[in-house]
Amino acid sequence: MQATWWEKTVEYDFVIRLANYGQLDFAAPVAGRHERSSADGIFGKDSKLVLVEFKKDYSEIESEKTIFNDYEAAAAALNRYGHHWIVYGALTEDDELFLANQKYFEPGECCLEVTDILNTGVTHSTFMDYLEKLQSFRIPDARGSGGRGLATHVSNESMLTVMGVSKTGKLIGSMSLEQYRQELKPAPPAPRINHTPSSSPSGPG
Is-above-0.70 flag for pTM? Predict the structure, then answer.
């Protein structure tokens, strides 16, 4: 029987392997317009961040070029950053799933053990600087434009996450910064009800 797997298989395998090797402090899946502006996931280790795009196999990597206004210009400008990766699946001679990888702008070069990818992380400020430059080369996404057909990028700020941590250091919850802002807004005041006293009926004259 021929082996079958999907992009999500690769993504889940990646997360499980990194967690088992103690290489993962933070993981945030990305979807919708945010995914178009960045990648499939943001991962962190020791306060450093990497950006990872997952593909079912090597043949699907070429499709990434279609979301750029000018892929070659983007590669020339951004290849100096070393924290953006593509992870994809391949089969070993024993028909077992193997996770191969390459830097995002260096097709065909598989240069790290997949569990070492997080060692290439960058600081938050460098990460956000990279996202801003990456978006400038990508074709804006019209999803979520409210039917107006307006293609837009997402702001760097909307990529930020607020995380709740217990006194023992355990992650107890997370939400986007925008969601957190909504939570902080005071509840609207209850509508006022005007009690107008009714006029007393006139007594007998």
Answer: no
